[in-house]
Amino acid sequence: MEYKFIGKEFKRVDALSKLTGRARFLADIILPHMYYGIFLRASIAHGEILDIETEDAKNVEGVKAIVLGRDFPHNYGHLIKDRPIFAFDKVRYYGEAIGGVIAKTEEAARVAADKVKVSYKPLPIITHPKESLNNKEVIIREVSPTPDMVYRPVKGTNIFHYDVVKRGDVEKGFEEADIIVESEFNIAPINHVQIEPHGAIALWDEDGSLTVWSSTQAPFTVRYFLSDIFELPLNKVRVIAYYVGGGFGGKSDVGIEPMVALLAKSVPGHPVKVILSREEVFHGSFLRGNFWGRVKTGVKKDGKIVSEKVEFAMGGGGSGEFGGTVVDGAFKSAVGPYEIENVHAVGYGVYTNLPPTGAFRGYGHPETHWMIERQRDIIARKLGIDPVVLRKKNILKPGSINIIGQKIEEHNGNLEKCLDLVVEELDWPNNIGHIDKKNKKAYGKGFALLQKSPVMPTNAASSAILKLNDDGTVNLTVGTQEIGQGIDTALTQIAAEALGISPEKIKLVPYRDTDLYPYEWQTVASRGVWSVGNAIIMAADEVKHKMRKVAKEIFSVDEEDIVVEDGLVFPQGEKEKAITYKDLAIGYTLPEGSGIGGPIVGAGYFIPEGLVYPDPETGQGNSAAEWTFGAQGVEIEVDLITGKVKILKAVTAIDAGTIINPENARGQVVGAMAMALSIAQREAIVISKEGKIRNDSLTDYKISTIRDVPSEYKVFFVETEEETGPFGARSLAEHGMVAMAPALANALYNALGVEFFKLPITFEDIALAIDEKKIV
Amino acid sequence: MSIRVEIPNTLSELWELLSYEGARIIAGGTDLMVRIRAKVEKPSLLVDIVRLPEFRLFENREDIFSIGATLTHAELLKKDLPGVLHDAISTIGSPQIRNMGTIGGNICNASPAGDSILPLYLYDANVVLLSKNGERRVPIGEFIKGPGKIDFRKGEALLKIVFTNKYKDYKYIFKKIGKRVAMTISVVSMGLIFKLENDIIKDIKIAYGAVSPTVVRIREAEEYLKGKPIEDKVLEEAKSIIQKNISPIDDIRATGEYRREVAGNLIFLLKDAYGKL
Question: Do A440 and A469 belong together in one domain?
């Protein structure tokens, strides 16, 4: 379809304010009578809290209050109530907050915090998910199932949630298979490393209402939890969010806001501000938990996969509330984008003595794809067939049934085309890998496939309000958050297209405020354009409908004979009589002076219809709203002297439906590829024997810099229009993360002949493998 | 918890400040501030010496170099330095760190991974320490005693680094291996200066960083390589000599095993350099 503003380049609406430094972030907010808070943090990874001495701290000049977990012993949660605001009975990870100090200055709070003395009875620690899964001696958290609990903890274990997929009969499938391939995989825990650390300001008014300013991806979810914890009606909790300086999922889960709100409760009338230090971002926010899994695959000689058994466990940290849904996301993609008759997959969320796991760009999918897309290449090698051929024999296409029992339709996207584009760009299967002994280099190419659906509740809703101004301009408010991904720009383009006016005439009102802006579930799961875009189209329809109602009076024709197009309103066939949106915006004035109509506001909403909870025993059911498919690849150069890998080229082909803003869309994919490769090549939280994070600084936790990222990026968009999306768009944001790691490892095999089963694959791992294999 | 900071404008002010209990010199602070933040160091008085002109002189007279201790890495990169020193300094941190950090600060931090330190071992440089009693001159290898340990006496300040570039016609290699390309700390670093004559190594100096408690010269490998051609067989032997002469440890950045392996492999870079001659 031809669009006026969709699919066209359009400058980011937040570009100027961000480039000039005028854009507002949490750290910029300074309020009258404000105090500062510092959290007290556990100095051991697991142990009972015996005693907390605060006398010396209280005497520090400027200290206003000290709040401890034991003053408010409450576990909150929506799916499982296992998140203390501050630890009160025991601490479950190093750095867990046990309270906080409020003072007139940050410095005074810091000095006082150092004077608080805590004694513990230490307990044994578990940090690896596989160890935790099998351990029945060290129980990190006892949870008794309650009727309203959504998760499924297993009594007497560290399992706080699990998901199962069962299709066909895997054992029978293995019997029919010609070969069986079994592999085991691991992934280290990682941090999001947002440029902006987490922070919040909380203020309790005399009337008992609470206002919280936060750097959050989910203002309405923050409001929900605060209202639940402090037993306030929703309209007495106000959450204000300015721009977010990097989220990547790490600011979608609710952690810091209840803590700051609890501190502020002891000093009503005074806002209390807390911004985490970089060290605290590592041990005091959320991680992508460590991951262990194994895959057993039965395959026919011709490459047809007949049976696959997958078992995995994600380390959830000390609280599972925000980690269990990552398992929910992962299990739907437990075997990747393939149609397999017999599948048995079990995914566990297990407690560990690490900071809690939360959302991380990709939401469980990079983890399962790490296993599956490695496994596909390994299978192809064992059978001696091309991995492209192997994949094509098994991938999801229109008519296929995926592992949760959904039938794939034409409009879900064209995975095969994505694969073709990537292998063509890699010039596959020519020169897929070789060693240049003379120059001490090796070269390799690798690729992998991906799928992802938005991981969300079945009723994750969005809304939008369009308000016409009397000069014909429009104000648009939405509850989804601009976190750097460019949503405000894409939604402006969608509104322009839907209203038929230029995007320059539309102001998407920056920042968010739960008192003033319409509801939004969360800004996660790559679903913003798809979900909020639909709500905007509905709001635009209401605006147009209201204008028609007035215009039919003006022109004395039937409502259906009124045309609304390109900012003009006129009777069918009489464009010369046209009036403009401006004439109708706040009510029309008839020639004799009397007014009709009134100020025009359109409201729209969206909820994914027809989604159901998966069957608890089999995982079957329509629980995924839409799918985005894609393929990714890399070309690499390995330095055999040092093990250093240079990414010569990174490629992604993705079917994201209609592309709203090509430059922004490409930016999302390129950014995700760079981030995924940084994670795959060098990122890992290093944990000491005592359970302490050893690299809680950017000196020791290295992310890629501009000089480490790929030398060249190629991005291809296949645009199969999505039936359920606005103007045919579907989810696009996290997807560029999902399959880069296996693509890299597959390329490393082709370069060196070494199979890697764990992430990250550091220069060190590669150098030692080269040495062991005597490749040089 | 608060720290007093003084910025002396004259040497006599400096000597007075340094006489106070708990005084600590700061010269850029790119390492020291990190250590203070981590509460590894708790100085009560910081004496910032970067404004004293005596510490900021640079001379190169007939290949005798004299480098003021508080010249920043960025300033030094604009000077006519021996290539191996220039390359080593250019790998330090980021532009921001190179704008703040100084060569004297890098030396006194005495990290085995200190990038500007390594080339100074190749030239057998001396450091000159100044106190109100006068100058004291110490070879770099004696000044640095271990990780973070230096031969520093109360009341002294590192004034300058001096060395003679007797090896002007030598080729050089500096290679730093970190966990990423830029803004990284050496996991292993190697510096070489060498001279070839008729395809034979006439002379060579070899130093390694981050594989022993201090930067180390591998004199046994230097002796072995002298008079030999650059061939795989020779380099293999040099590799095992190097590996025998280092004592790398496991730390947050890498294992000792990896450091030993890469340190040995790096000597093969001679072949690259040779190929390009």
Answer: no
Across residues B106-131, what is the average pLDDT?
97
Cα gap A517→A530, rounded to integer Å: 19
pLDDT score recorded for residue B271:
87
List of long-range contacts for A561-570, beta carbons under 8 Å, 24+ apart: A564/A500, A565/A500, A566/A500, A566/A501, A567/A472, A567/A499, A567/A500, A567/A501, A567/A502, A567/A505
Q: Report pTM.
A: 0.96
Contacts of B266 in chain A (CB under 8 A): 641-642
Determine, for residues B252 and A111 on separate chains, whether the beta-carbon distance falls below 8 Å: no
Domain assignment present for residue A581? The answer is: yes
Reported ipTM: 0.92
Residue A410 maps to a domain: yes
**Boundary residue ending a domain (A582, A606, A630):** A606
Residues A500 and A599 reside in one and the same domain:
yes
- Identify whether residues A445 and A467 lie together within a single domain: no
CB distance B179–A643 less than 8 Å?
no
Are residues A767 and B262, on separate chains, in Cβ contact within 8 Å?
Answer: yes
Residue A728 lies in a domain: yes
Enumerate the active-site residues of A. Answer: 734
Q: Which residues of A touch B1 (CB under 8 A)?
A: 107, 110-111, 114
> Which residues span the domain enclosing A46?
30-123+198-275
How many Cβ pairs within 8 Å bridge chains A and B? 60
Interface contact A773, partner B, CB < 8 A? no
Chain B CB contacts of A642 under 8 Å are 177, 262, 265-266
Confidence of residue B275 (pLDDT cuts 50, 70, 90): low
Structure tokens at B161: 């680094």
Give contacts of A702 with chain B, Cβ < 8 Å: 179-180, 184
Residue B277, pLDDT above cutoff 70: no
* B265, two tokens: 């492999």
**CA–CA separation, A179 and B20 (whole Å):** 77
Could you read off the pLDDT of B152-194 as tens digits, one per residue?
A: 999 999 999 999 999 999 999 999 999 998 888 899 999 999 9
Check if the beta carbon of residue A548 is closer than 8 Å to that of residue A248.
no
CA distance A685 to A692: 10
Look at residue A128 and tell me whether its pLDDT is greater than 90: yes
Say whether pLDDT at A303 is over 80. Answer: yes
Tokens of B99: 């704008």
pLDDT in tens, A42-53: 999 999 999 999
Domain tally for chain A? 3
CA distance B259 to chain A (A): 9
Are B252 and A700 a contacting pair at CB < 8 A? yes
Contact yes or no for B252 and A686 at CB 8 A:
yes
**What residues of B are in contact with residue A700 (Cβ under 8 Å)?**
252-253
pLDDT (average), residues A310-336: 97
Asked if the model's pLDDT at residue A179 lies above 50, the reply is yes
State pLDDT tens for residues A723-769: 999 999 998 999 999 999 999 999 999 999 999 999 999 999 999 99
- Kind and range of the H or E run holding B33: helix B32-37
Strand partners, A513: A240
Same-domain status, A717 and A619: yes
Which CATH number is A571's domain given?
3.30.365.10
Residues A642 and A731 in one domain: yes
3-state secondary structure of A659: coil
In degrees rounded to 5, what are phi and psi of residue A357?
A: -80, 140
A425, A691, A767, B125 from A84: Cα distances, Å: 50, 20, 44, 59
Question: Which residue of chain A has the CA closest to B259?
Answer: A764
C-alpha A107/C-alpha A37 separation (Å) is: 10
Contact A764 B181 (CB under 8 A): no
* Average pLDDT estimate for A99-123: 97
Q: What is the DSSP string of A339-365?
A: --SEEEEEEEEE--SSSPB---TTTTH
